[in-house]
Amino acid sequence: MTATAPIGLSDLRSFLHGLPGVDKVGVEARAAALGTRSVKTSSKAKAIDLAIRMVDLTTLEGADTPGKVRALCAKGRRPDPADPSCPPVAAICVYPAMVPVAAAALAGSGVHLASVATAFPSGQAPLEVKLADTRAAVAAGADEVDMVISRGAFLAGDYAKVFDEIVAVKEACGGAHLKVILETGELATYDNVRRASWLAMLAGADFIKTSTGKVAVNATLPITLVMLEAVRDFRERYGRQIGVKPAGGIKNTKDAIKYLVLINETVGDDWLSPDWFRFGASSLLNDLLMQRTKLTTGHYAGPDYFTLD
């Protein structure tokens, strides 16, 4: 085990199954209640800029081209070319093959470069392939790696295999941060989401992430609430803070603000930073920019004012 988790592999199963069960009704009710909170106009502008700074602007399509990646990097660096006060995004997220292109386009910008290594999105590849994928992405310039766990192994109860893979990928990351994708839409229960969150953190994850965005159910407020509670409790127990990244299906400003409220009410200001919370999104940024323009000018920008990604 890692230095943060003074339990042996033989105790891992009993530890994970000894975690408190999740009250499904309670979690969903609390998430729904927090989702109704309103944000005043004076605070909304700050919330929108914070959300922009939290975006991992993402393109993960088989048809990605160097030109598309360069355009995405330019948008991430300067989301609104007409307004230099608009902050940049947190990171650009691409497939490993596109990392060299993105690294060149982001040089000197301060925008992070994330890559979905480890046989994304299925995770169905030998560990040696996942490690080679990770090392290549980092060598090419990625300073963040988004890995996906082996859900089949997790659901079969082979926690040791999942743990060992995360440990190995973390080592292969070197100095790069590791975000561990749980693919919560395939985990079936909130109890499994909590166990997978703790498993990833015990194995050395820097962030835990909901989804690949490639399955039917991606990020939801209740699932993110369970994960936020996990990182809160983990820090209390082990003294190490872990980030959270909901990804997939977060498309508009209203939804993004709901997540910011959820953070504030569950874990507090310590996580209200792109260092500790990210949105994995492609279309969210445009809506944030449209709402930002509305607040500053009083008028909505046309749907074609910002580039479509």
TrEMBL record:
One of its GO terms (molecular function) is deoxyribose-phosphate aldolase activity. The keyword Ribosomal protein does not apply. Its EC number is 4.1.2.4. The keyword Transmembrane does not apply. It comes from the Bacteria. It is an enzyme of class 4 (lyase). CDD domains: DeoC (cd00959). It catalyses: 2-deoxy-D-ribose 5-phosphate = D-glyceraldehyde 3-phosphate + acetaldehyde. Keywords: Lyase, Schiff base. InterPro entries: Aldolase_TIM, DeoC, DeoC/FbaB/LacD_aldolase. Pathway: Carbohydrate degradation; 2-deoxy-D-ribose 1-phosphate degradation; D-glyceraldehyde 3-phosphate and acetaldehyde from 2-deoxy-alpha-D-ribose 1-phosphate: step 2/2. NCBIfam families: deoC. Belongs to the DeoC/FbaB aldolase family. DeoC type 2 subfamily. This is Deoxyribose-phosphate aldolase. It comes from Actinoplanes oblitus.
